[in-house]
Give the backbone structure.
Amino acid sequence: MSESFDVVVVGAGPVGCVTAMSLAYKGAKVLLLEADPNGSRRLAGEWLHPPGLKVLQHLGVEKSISTLRASYANGLGFVVFPDDGTEPIQLNYPDNSLGFSCEHNTLVKLLREAVLAYPRIQFIPFARVTQIEHNKVIFENRVLEKTQSVISENIVGADGRSSTMRKLLGIQPKRHLISYMAGIFLENVTLPWEGFGHVFLGGLGPVLAYRIGCDQVRICLDVPVDCFKTSQNKAAFLWDAYSPILPSTLLPAFRYALENRPVAWCANHFSPRVHYGSKTLTLVGDATGCYHPITATGMTLGFQDAERLATSKTFAEFQRDRLLHTYVPELLTFSLYQVFTRLDYSAVAIRHAVYQIWRQYPSERYRTMRLLSGEETNVLYFISSFQQGLRIAVTQLIMEQISMGRGREVVSTLAAFREWIELPFKMVLSRISKN
């Protein structure tokens, strides 16, 4: 007779581990299955915002995290290096809160060790789910080289963007390829602002750099789709395209890494978080949808999914909560990527307006980081901040045109900003219409 569990969690990446612990913390008997334990070596989430770190602390993983955090400076916020040559802009997390960054595989190992310490969780690696029949989960156990089955009324898919559980539900989300990401290790270098994530603008795409260990820094380079597909020598292309925007102190290590180590690649997709499964097979993390990693929200959202699933009384309550509280991360990620990468004059004007707002108004830096970290999820709060940037950009352009005797161009200027004005409202309505 098949063994029975309260919940079966499929996928033992960071989100799957946190989901299993969150449910076990609430008293559930949990089976955690992982098809490919070595998959954690890939380029994946390495930055956690303060709300995500709080989830780990609540689950009792604080000691392990604190020991790792204390070994190097990290999680203080972000520093943006503008494309106009002006001074960097420091964006601290609000209220002295802290995030966390470390190499993905290191984080996965830490969380799996924590899972094994939970008495109500059974973890089976090299276990690939092949079928679900009502309340029976059938999987191939490659360690024992046999097919096994268990009984559970509740199944959770935490198996990432290519989720098998989502496919079993018959959900085919629309995924839009945005760009490609090149991940590179730099060793024995000092970042200009230790403890912060660095965002370098002015290249073909933004570059994100942050510390993931005592002697290691990760740089992630956003590469346009066409450039990725047409470049023959990827390493030479990355050097030519991105070395001009990196600090000179990082360039020797950057060149060495390109010449001597493989580059880790992944595709950046946009897939709205509109599908959370059903009351018997629930989806969490990237299995529900994913955004461009420019705002590093993926793991934090996944951990919040796990926490909310464990505290929700019904699937409907869980789904309603997650739909409500993921509007803003989606809007912010999409908007920032557009503002930071587009070269038309409306985007450039908004980008410069954002720089101006961040430099002049501490309250707007505070607001931005509350939105970015996920502490604030009110969509009206986001729209208010977004519209302030638009007002400044439009006003400055119109004043410039009038001063240059181009008053007739004011109407065309306003028309160019129409899509930006409508953007947040269209995205919100799009999310609502899909539900």
